[in-house]
Amino acid sequence: MKVGVISDTHDNVPNIKRAVEIFKKEKVDMVIHAGDFVAPFSVNPLNEMGIDYLGVFGNNDGEKVGLTNTSKGRIVDPPHIIKVAGKKILITHKLSTPELFAGAEIDLIIYGHNHKKEIKKVGSTLIVNPGECGGWLTGKSTIAIVDLIELSAKIIEI
After folding, report:
1. Can the peptide bond before residue 79 be classed as cis, meaning omega within 30 degrees of 0?
2. Rounded (5°) CA angle 71-156-150
3. Is 11 in contact with 135 (CB distance < 8 Å)?
4. Domain total for the chain?
5. Backbone φ, ψ for residue 3 (5° rounding)
6. Beta strands in the chain (DSSP E)
7. pLDDT score of 7
8. Residues near 75 by Cβ (< 8 Å), separated by ≥ 6?
9. Euclidean distance between CA atoms 155 and 158, whole angstroms
10. What's the pLDDT score for residue 44?
11. Is 116 helix (H, G, I), strand (E, B) or coil?
């Protein structure tokens, strides 16, 4: 099972649409957004993609009611834990030391906030920060694809 991972979109709808096209091409089963959508209109490409998604609020997501309504409740407060394909996934936005959660029966940690792409393993826990899809801070727009069966990930520049 493949999961598309996106974060820090910051209203960049053209980049969100590019990410959605890559998720479709990669045939992901689900998309996880690690926060900082910003405005409710930026959720629309996710609503229209035909792939189930879940997201958490980031520090720039001030319009929580609008985001909740536009996403039909698919954006929730972090940290949020879900189980997918037998894997326990922790989704959050700001996480200064993701290693603290590694080994706490968490298979995958997904986070964003710092706009720095990262894939690493701590013990048996895979930690993934897809970087920033918006591209406003670093000038590079990135997303990630996670294979839950292999518990591996790759970063894709869009």
Report:
1. yes
2. 85
3. no
4. 1
5. -120, 130
6. 2-6, 30-33, 52-56, 75-76, 80-84, 87-91, 108-110, 118-122, 125-129, 142-147, 152-157
7. 99
8. 33, 37, 43, 54, 55, 56, 57, 61, 67, 68
9. 10
10. 98
11. coil
- Name which of 125, 48, 27 is nearest 111 in CA terms: 125
In the predicted structure, residue 114 carries a pLDDT above the cut 70: yes
Which CATH number is 14's domain given? 3.60.21.10
Residue 102 has pLDDT above 80, yes or no: no
For residues 103 and 9, which has the higher predicted lDDT (pLDDT)? 9
* Range of the structural domain that residue 67 is part of: 2-157
% of the chain exceeding 90 in pLDDT: 91
Asked if residues 75 and 33 have their Cβ atoms less than 8 Å apart, the reply is: yes
Strands 87-91 and 142-147, by their bridges, are unpaired
> DSSP code of 77?
P
- pLDDT tens-place string over residues 7-40: 999 999 999 999 999 999 999 999 999 999 999 9
CA 133 to CA 5: how far, in whole Å?
10
Residue with tokens 């894997």: 87
